[in-house]
TrEMBL record:
<dbReference type="InterPro" id="IPR016032">
    <property type="entry name" value="Sig_transdc_resp-reg_C-effctor"/>
</dbReference>
<dbReference type="GO" id="GO:0000160">
    <property type="term" value="P:phosphorelay signal transduction system"/>
</dbReference>
<keyword id="KW-0805">Transcription regulation</keyword>
<keyword id="KW-0238">DNA-binding</keyword>
<dbReference type="GO" id="GO:0003677">
    <property type="term" value="F:DNA binding"/>
</dbReference>
<dbReference type="InterPro" id="IPR001789">
    <property type="entry name" value="Sig_transdc_resp-reg_receiver"/>
</dbReference>
<dbReference type="InterPro" id="IPR000792">
    <property type="entry name" value="Tscrpt_reg_LuxR_C"/>
</dbReference>
<feature type="domain" description="Response regulatory">
    <location>
        <begin position="11"/>
        <end position="126"/>
    </location>
</feature>
<dbReference type="InterPro" id="IPR039420">
    <property type="entry name" value="WalR-like"/>
</dbReference>
<protein>
    <submittedName>
        <fullName>DNA-binding response regulator</fullName>
    </submittedName>
</protein>
<feature type="domain" description="HTH luxR-type">
    <location>
        <begin position="155"/>
        <end position="220"/>
    </location>
</feature>
<keyword id="KW-0597">Phosphoprotein</keyword>
<dbReference type="Pfam" id="PF00072">
    <property type="entry name" value="Response_reg"/>
</dbReference>
<dbReference type="InterPro" id="IPR011006">
    <property type="entry name" value="CheY-like_superfamily"/>
</dbReference>
<feature type="modified residue" description="4-aspartylphosphate">
    <location>
        <position position="62"/>
    </location>
</feature>
<keyword id="KW-0804">Transcription</keyword>
<dbReference type="Pfam" id="PF00196">
    <property type="entry name" value="GerE"/>
</dbReference>
């Protein structure tokens, strides 16, 4: 091994029904030394087929597409593979944001995203983190309080499998704190926080931090404005 070894290449599938948009994203990502677009798709069915064939690290997926929309495509991809899904849409108030995240998407971006932010978002999601535009986070919290979901008692009961420290960690995740910030708050090491996060995700059957935030609000463990 040498000190100049390159980082692993992030393999990406780009799915959007608008050819110009799809081509633009592909050009930007393919220009990065640590990224490779392995396939493009023009609808949800093609996106699912491309993930099955190429096993990418990240699927850049438009929410609104013909034949199969991005919500259903994300649900299938997240259930069948370890591919991370980064959703795209034209409007930050898209009615499908909540459903996309519930389906297992790890991030959400507007189509007018800047070049550097797009590249950074793919890297963040590929690295196992979650990413939301600030306006989407605000809308998501509103959805927690306005949409019917699991009965509060049922949702809260699901958290009974967590230890006291794991519940504290979940509360802090819901507040948007990073692992380093959680470690400082709980006065523990960042490694310990990572262990708590991993354990609570496993116990609750959650894919990532976005779904952890949803679980925290649905159970009443986290409250908007608190």
């Amino acid at each position: 091994m040498t000190g100049t070894e390159s980082a692993p290449v992030v393999r990406v599938v780009v799915a959007d029904d608008q050819e110009l948009v799809r081509g633009g994203f592909t050009m930007i990502l393919d220009a990065q030394p640590d990224m490779e677009v392995v396939a493009e798709a023009g609808d949800g069915l093609q996106a699912v087929a491309a993930v099955r064939e190429h096993a990418p690290d990240v699927l850049l997926l438009d929410i609104r597409m013909p034949r199969m929309d991005g919500i259903e495509a994300a649900r299938i991809v997240c259930a069948e593979s370890a591919c991370r899904v980064l959703m795209l849409t034209t409007f930050d108030l898209d009615d499908y944001v909540y459903d996309a995240l519930r389906a297992g998407a790890s991030g959400f971006l507007l189509k007018d995203v800047r070049r550097d932010d797009l590249v950074n978002a793919v890297r963040v999601v590929a690295g196992g983190e979650s990413l939301l535009a600030p306006t989407v986070t605000t809308r998501l919290i509103h959805e927690f309080t306005s949409r019917p979901g699991k009965p509060a008692a049922q949702a809260a009961g699901a958290l009974a499998v967590l230890t006291a420290r794991e519940r504290e960690t979940l509360q802090l995740i819901a507040r948007g704190l990073s692992n380093a910030e959680i470690a400082a708050t709980l006065v523990v090491s960042e490694h310990t926080v990572k262990t708590h996060v991993s354990n609570l995700l496993t116990k609750l059957g959650l894919r990532d931090r976005v779904q952890a935030v949803i679980a925290a609000y649905e159970s009443g463990l986290a409250v908007p404005g608190a």
